[in-house]
Amino acid sequence: MAKNKNAGHKGSYGYQKLKEREPRACIRFKCALPNTILDILRRRPGWVEVKEEGEWDFYWCDVSWLRENFDHTYMDEHVRICHFRNHYELTRKNYIVKNLKRFRKQIEREAGKLEATKCDFFPKTFEMPSEYHLFVEEFRKNPGITWIMKPVARSQGRGIFLFRKLKDVIDWRKDGVRTDDQKDETQVENYVAQCYIENPYLIGGRKFDLRVYVLVMSYIPLKAWLYRDGFARFSNTRFTLSSIDDHYVHLTNVAVQKTAPDYDPEKGCKWMIQRFRQYLTAKHGAEVVETLFAEMDNIFIKSLQSVQKVIISDKHCFELYGYDILIDQDLKPEFDAGATLTAVETVTLSSDTRGGSSKTGPAGVWTFSFSADRDTRTNLKGKVQREQCISAVKSTQQLLRVSDVTRKQCPGLWIYAQHRSGGPNEQQQALFASSSASCVGDLTLVCTRGWE
Amino acid sequence: MMLEQDTGLSLAIAQIVQRLKGSSLHSQLERQARGSLHKPEIKLESLKEDIKEFLKTSGWEKRLQNAVYSELNVFPSPCHPAAPPEHMKEPLVYMRKAQGSWEKRILKSLNSMCTELSIPLARKRPIGEQKELLNKWNEMGTDEPDLSLFRPVYAPKDFLEVLMNLRNPNYENGDQPSFRNHLGLIQVPLKVKDIPELKDYFSELGLNTGQLGIDDSTQVPPELFENEHVRVGQTVLTEQDSAAAQQYVRQGCPTALRAELWALILNISNQPEDILYYEQLKSNVIQHDLLVDSLIYKDVKLTASNDDYYFVFEDYLYQVLLCFSRDTSVLEHFSYNSATPPKSYIRGKLGMEEYAVFYPPNGVIPFHGFSMYVAPLCFLYHEPSKLYQIFREMYVRFFFRLHSISSHPSGIVSLCLLFETLLQTHLPQLFYHLREIGAQPLRISFKWMVRAFSGYLATDQLLLLWDRILGYNSLEILAVLAAAVFAFRAVNLMEVTSLAAAEAVLADLSTLKVMPLLQIFLFATVT
Questions:
Q1: CA A363 to CA A427: how far, in whole Å?
Q2: Average per-residue pLDDT in chain B?
Q3: Residue A394 falls inside a structural domain
Q4: Which of A299, A332, A352 is the last residue of a domain?
């Protein structure tokens, strides 16, 4: 279970692409995000990090850099960068829905209705405010079902709410710009309204979703790799439809779960997909599970095909997508709008300890999270450097105590970072948060690799 | 000689008949036989044979066979008609005495906690509380009672101390204590198998026999073993034959068939009366609150809830364990368990036998880690009543031996001795080294064996291990695996210089594959 997600693919791949003229003994990389990815890159033998303005062969960039610089940057043939120019066609919720709908129509025209049903893996979705009337029509056709409203450009469960009555939506529209919107942005934020799965598959009474990673090396021709071990993320509380205001029940993003009052950072709330698969096989038999996974493969393939012609193909680009899949009671998978890995909730490098409540762990066990709000990032860039380090605590007890106090003082998203180092009894934990009051909404956070 | 065998056999038959009489299977058979009288093929002249034939073809004979087989597996064979009942519990006096004094200690600990916290051992819940609990039955994990004052009654390491001090007063071998005969922690002369005997006993695990856990890995084409094995498994299930199933699972259960195969071996069929019985236990839980409930809560919160994979099943664990405490049918297993259920007296009537009750009602006081016996089963069974029955049967067949002092070959004392002997005989250098640095191997492996490796191995590996426990109806494989783990990590262990470092090397077993380890240790090591 100690697989590093990215290393396997990129390692061998990078080595092949050195130019003939200048045989270099190393690969120069740059990484914009201080998290797992940076760590992995640093540890690769023969890969060297370049400073601010140096030349690079490999850049794990953030999207704002891409937006500003991609078009003006010359890249040698061997150079690789981790985003496609218009990646948002697949990652922003409204665009992917638009592309999928269009693709579906195309299939229906070309191959008939039956073939088109293979694309029915996403719930009925409407863009707001542009498709508001279409939405109302659909809403009226199916009274009583629950809908979910999601902001297009945000991740990690922010700004999401559930509703059953049209009145709730109308009220929300009237409220105008909501409190967590950008003060600086003048455009109206886009949302999508989606049918909410009311009968999710539950394990141990809990709702969960599956996170699966797909690496796309090129769109033309379409070359994609599926990582065998994603994970199932569990909600910390038991599922019931009676409390649709309770974020903690319905939203399974680890980031949201972390703010739930009874969240225990030791718990993790995740199963690796292999384990999930074994559980289902024991319960339903191998065939049913094979079908489920084949249908999931279909989701990945169709969604990539739907944007294949739209994405600006560039041989320098590749991208790692994290798909969120929901399973309903009948073991049918549903696609829940993918997100790119610049907004990663949690990346676990290797398994946590076994054996009950033992706090000792093998060398290098990590659990940490990172969050970046794409839209506010540009504004926060200056403030990120002036991070306030609240405190570094040395035990879980202190960790929880501190968080209670500071949580009240500093609103925003709290992330816990834990590093278990080599020795059996050492455990260091650090709690970081940035608390600039002038930042709106949720905040950026840094992950740490422990004590420098 | 023949006479003895005959009397032994007829005694066994008599006892089994005695136990099955009055069981629900008995009344069902009678009902079936009576119902069959209407059938045309039953003739008055050959009534007995015809009914027997009918029972055979309708599958009822098989069910009887399974029940008999189950009884044979669970109850030890009667030694001698004149043997007192204590001998069935435990034939050796010194072991009985040791178990008795250990029990006294546990009870003292429980009573003192009770007095300290002034909590009654049992009380009736007020109606409001009953209603609340009923509403929350499926999500008891969301409850966060204050358990900080409760401590587990004992932990495995306390038990190990007791075992280390076990001595047979009749045994005097005249040797001066030297390193040659006092290497290990266990100092009682019990007979344990050596490797040639183990090879013979576990012959189906040999290198030339296909195994799940080895021959179903992705590199091996399924036509070689896996497909056929699955097919055979399905046939066994169709035939509903317990004995065949037990033989079959020695090579491992396919994931999809495991739940049914285990139920077949344990003879669990989840009849309506079983479901009713479970519901009855549930209402007992609702009506009365026991002190042990808090111990159970604490244990679940400390162990299973913190486990990466079992945390999901937290609610099921409460539903099973709280009911288990109140199940008086579990008291039956004390006839072959060296332990005796603790007695408690109604308030104010201390010493008066008419007012004595067993406490807890099932006679089993949970210790730290107890809930881990149930957690892996949640992967297989999702209906609470079936999960409950499977667990109860697993407990009264196997798990009880892991925390009571007895001379049984599957008892924890024998397992510890087997482990130490295997290690001393086949890795003497490692054993000596660890002993010299103050890291007696048993101190590390004890907790694995007491929990049957639950929580230490990855779940799929654990289930493969428990397949073999069921298949061989013995826990000896736990000791063999423990020794195999040490053998596997021997190189690293030879380099450590402290107990803490040795523990660190063996802290994480989650990546181990049990079947290759067992095979190599038993069949591929040069002895």
A1: 11
A2: 87
A3: yes
A4: A352
Instruction: Estimate to the nearest angstrom the gap between the alpha carbon of B512 and the chain centroid.
Output: 22
**Does A337 lie in the same domain as A228?**
yes
Judged by CB atoms closer than 8 Å, whether chains meet at A279 and B379 is answered as: yes
Do the Cβ atoms of A271 and A234 come closer than 8 Å? yes
pLDDT tens-digit readout, B44-79: 888 888 888 888 888 888 888 888 888 888 877 666
* Of the candidates B60, B71, B89, B66, the residue with the CA atom closest to the CA atom of residue B12: B71
Does some domain include residue A270? yes
Same domain? A205 vs A312: yes
Number of domains chain A contains:
4
Range of the domain at A331: 200-352
Cα torsion angle, A114, A120, A126, A127, sign: negative
ipTM value for the complex: 0.79
Q: Confidence band (pLDDT; 50, 70, 90) for B232?
A: very high
| A180 in the same domain as A140 | yes
Provide the pLDDT for residue A44: 84
Whether residues A435 and A305 fall in one domain:
no
Least confident of A368-382, B226-240, B292-306, B348-362: A368-382
| Rounded-to-integer distance, Cα A98 and Cα B217, Å | 42
Of B306, B500, B503, which has the smallest distance from its Cβ to A356's Cβ?
B306
Residues 6 or more apart whose CB falls under 8 angstroms from that of B520 comprise: B484, B487, B488
- H-helix segments, B93-194: 93-117, 127-135, 156-164
Residue A118 counted as domain residue: no
Mutate to test the interface with A, among B142, B253, B306, B450 (most CBs of A within 10 A): B306
Q: Are residues A247 and A346 in the same domain?
A: yes
Between CA A236 and CA A263 the distance in angstroms is 7
Say yes or no: A326 and A447 in one domain: no
* Distance, CA of A65 to CA of A150 (rounded, Å): 25
Tokens found for residue B414: 């024998």
Looking at the complex, report in whole angstroms how far the Cα of residue B35 sits from the nearest Cα belonging to chain A.
36
Last residue within a domain, chosen from A321, A352, A383: A352
Mean pLDDT is highest, among A88-97, B134-143, B377-386, for B377-386
Give A319's DSSP letter. E
> Whole-angstrom Cα distance, residue A337 to residue A122?
8
B469 contacts B451 by C-beta, under 8 angstroms: no
CATH number, domain with residue A206: 3.30.470.20
Residue B145's φ and ψ, nearest 5 degrees, are -70, 160
A282 and B508: CB-CB below 8 Å? Answer: no
Residues A71-96, mean pLDDT to the nearest whole number: 80
Better pLDDT: A309 or A239: A309
Report the phi/psi class of residue B180: left, alpha or beta, with left for phi > 0 and alpha for psi in -120 to 50. alpha
B193-225 per-position pLDDT tens digit: 999 999 999 999 988 888 888 888 878 888 888
Place B277 in a pLDDT band, splitting at 50, 70 and 90. very high
- Which domains, ranges and CATH numbers included, belong to chain B? 1-75 (no CATH), 92-149+269-399 (no CATH), 195-256+401-524 (1.10.472)
Q: Is A364 on the interface with B (CB under 8 A)?
A: no
Identify whether residues A326 and A217 lie together within a single domain: yes
| Among A235, A238, A279, A359, the residue to mutate for chain B (most B Cβ within 10 A) | A279
pLDDT of A237 reads 65
Q: What's phi and psi for B166, nearest 5 deg?
A: -70, 130
Instruction: Tell whether A99 is covered by a domain.
Output: no
Count of all residues that appear for chain B in the document: 527
Rounded to a whole number of angstroms, the distance from the CA of B137 to the nearest CA of chain A is 12
Which tens digits make up the pLDDT trace of A10-36?
A: 333 334 444 445 567 788 888 877 677
Do A322 and A449 lie in one domain? The reply is no
Residues A229-251 have a mean pLDDT of 64
Among A258-267, B130-139, B228-237, whose mean pLDDT is lowest?
A258-267
